[in-house]
């Protein structure tokens, strides 16, 4: 199926198809009319998925070069950006060429940013290979690297020319990475689609076990929601796109506390963050306690952390709120929070009292799901 992201002259299609990677030569042929392809990927993807793309491009007669980077968050650095742009320039990249990001969010974010600045903008195509990248980061044009001051602080909005999603690439993804990506799937239900959250409760286990049909439904639903929200608010100015940050402010504090390391993956932090956002909303009398319980239960049932303890975080409220204050969404000393009036009823609250958040997190320190 095809989902369109409608952004005027920056509009593009997202193709979702089992086996799309083996048909990439055919599906991406229009971009080969005037130039070559340069595929950028990471070392873990080489043995698992790269050969499928290369075979398909070769069969379609599309010339391609490959640049392989080390895996992991530390690849989103100035040093790697320099290495990558130097490599692309040494290939003699031209405006008619297409840069293909084959990988998870790390590759997508770095390659997208490199494409945005290389020769003031080169065409790039996203071929996401993690569940997180397929349902979230490959769509919408956010690109970035990290700096000493924090994650994703250097970057640009730069839309891809096409997104090619092949759910079968997830067959080789480690289960922990699949679970982490699933948190962002659940997020779309919690934001504004209670029926989809109920679908997740009924089908999440199947999806996590690799059921192709459940996986395809979840990806299509998530991508559709993301494309719609991005079409309404490309640059996060109206508040619509901000809804996608549900669970991310609490989550960011947990990631900071665990050093943005493998101790807690981004999706795991978001899972705990969404459970915390719902319990905080319930504690504030905004949301029925029963809804917060359902959210907590589903996250835990998916094998994701729903509490500070499960996330491996032992810190007081003041410490965690201290991390939140470094969030790039801080506005004049206030931090906008995504809270909920219920499942599928997320809203942006710009008036949250950080001392209430602190007290809530102190009480959460010993909570278990
Ligand atoms: P995310 O997409 O969550 O931001 P990364 O880009 O860091 O995460 O990818 C997570 C890990 O999974 C990395 O170690 C990456 O090399 C690996 N990986 C990505 N896609 C696949 C795949 N399809 N099969 C196996 N490993 C993969
Ligand atoms: Zn996220």
Automatic annotation (TrEMBL):
Alphabetized, the UniProt keywords read: Amino-acid biosynthesis, Aromatic amino acid biosynthesis, Cobalt, Cytoplasm, Lyase, Metal-binding, NAD, Nucleotide-binding, Zinc
Q: What is its EC number?
A: 4.2.3.4
Under which pathway is this protein filed? Answer: Metabolic intermediate biosynthesis; chorismate biosynthesis; chorismate from D-erythrose 4-phosphate and phosphoenolpyruvate: step 2/7
The entry's Zn(2+)-binding residues are: 184, 248, 266
Q: Does Ligase appear among the keywords?
A: no
Reading the lineage from the top rank, the first entry is Bacteria
Tell me which Gene Ontology terms the entry assigns under biological process.
Answer: amino acid biosynthetic process; aromatic amino acid family biosynthetic process; chorismate biosynthetic process
Cofactor(s) this protein cannot do without: Zn(2+); NAD(+); Co(2+)
Per UniProt, residues of the 3-dehydroquinate synthase C-terminal domain are: 181-330
Q: What class of enzyme is it?
A: lyase
| InterPro entries attached to this UniProt entry | Dehydroquinate_synthase, DHQ_synth_AroB, DHQ_synth_fam, DHQS/DOIS_N, DHQS_C
- GO MF assignments: 3-dehydroquinate synthase activity; metal ion binding; nucleotide binding
Q: Subcellular location, in the record's words? A: Cytoplasm
Q: How is the cofactor bound?
A: Binds 1 divalent metal cation per subunit. Can use either Co(2+) or Zn(2+).
Where is it mostly found? cytoplasm
Q: Where, by residue number, does NAD(+) bind?
A: 105-109, 129-130, 142, 151, 169-172
Q: Pfam families annotated for this entry? A: DHQ_synthase, DHQS_C
Reactions the enzyme catalyzes = 7-phospho-2-dehydro-3-deoxy-D-arabino-heptonate = 3-dehydroquinate + phosphate
An annotated GO cellular component: cytoplasm
Ranges where the 3-dehydroquinate synthase N-terminal domain occurs: 68-179
Briefly, what is this protein's role? Catalyzes the conversion of 3-deoxy-D-arabino-heptulosonate 7-phosphate (DAHP) to dehydroquinate (DHQ).
Q: Which family does it belong to?
A: Belongs to the sugar phosphate cyclases superfamily. Dehydroquinate synthase family.
Protein name per UniProt: 3-dehydroquinate synthase
Q: Which organism is it from?
A: Rhizorhabdus histidinilytica
State which gene encodes it.
Answer: aroB
């Amino acid at each position: 199926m095809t989902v369109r992201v409608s952004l005027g002259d920056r509009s593009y299609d997202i193709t979702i198809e089992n086996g799309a990677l083996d048909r990439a030569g055919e599906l991406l042929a229009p971009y080969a009319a005037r130039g070559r392809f340069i595929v950028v990927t990471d070392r873990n993807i080489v043995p698992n998925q790269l050969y499928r793309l290369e075979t398909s491009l070769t069969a379609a007669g599309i010339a391609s070069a490959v640049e392989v980077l080390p895996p992991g968050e530390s690849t989103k650095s100035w040093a790697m950006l320099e290495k990558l742009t130097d490599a692309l320039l040494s290939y003699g990249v031209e405006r008619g060429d297409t840069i293909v990001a084959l990988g998870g969010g790390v590759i997508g974010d770095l390659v997208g940013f490199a494409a945005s600045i290389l020769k003031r903008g080169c065409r790039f195509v996203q071929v996401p290979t993690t569940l997180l990248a397929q349902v979230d980061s490959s769509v919408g044009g956010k690109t970035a690297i990290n700096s000493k001051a924090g994650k994703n602080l250097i970057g640009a909005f730069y839309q891809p020319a096409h997104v090619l999603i092949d759910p079968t690439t997830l067959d080789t993804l480690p289960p922990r990475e699949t679970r982490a990506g699933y948190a962002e799937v659940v997020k779309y239900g919690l934001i504004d689609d209670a029926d989809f959250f109920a679908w997740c409760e009924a089908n999440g286990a199947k999806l996590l076990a690799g059921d192709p049909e459940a996986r395809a439904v979840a990806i299509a639903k998530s991508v559709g929601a993301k494309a719609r929200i991005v079409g309404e608010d490309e640059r996060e100015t109206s508040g619509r796109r901000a809804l996608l940050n549900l669970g991310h402010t609490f989550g960011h504090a947990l990631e900071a506390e665990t050093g943005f390391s493998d101790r807690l993956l981004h999706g795991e932090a978001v899972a705990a963050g969404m459970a915390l956002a719902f319990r905080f909303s319930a504690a504030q009398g905004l949301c029925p306690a029963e809804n917060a319980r359902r959210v907590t239960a589903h996250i835990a049932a998916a094998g994701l952390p729903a509490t500070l303890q499960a996330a491996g975080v032992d810190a007081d409220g003041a410490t965690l709120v201290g991390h939140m204050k470094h969030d790039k969404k801080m506005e004049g000393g206030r931090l906008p929070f995504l809270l909920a009036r219920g499942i599928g009823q997320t809203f942006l609250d710009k008036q949250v009292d950080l001392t209430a958040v602190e007290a809530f997190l102190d009480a959460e320190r010993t909570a278990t799901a």
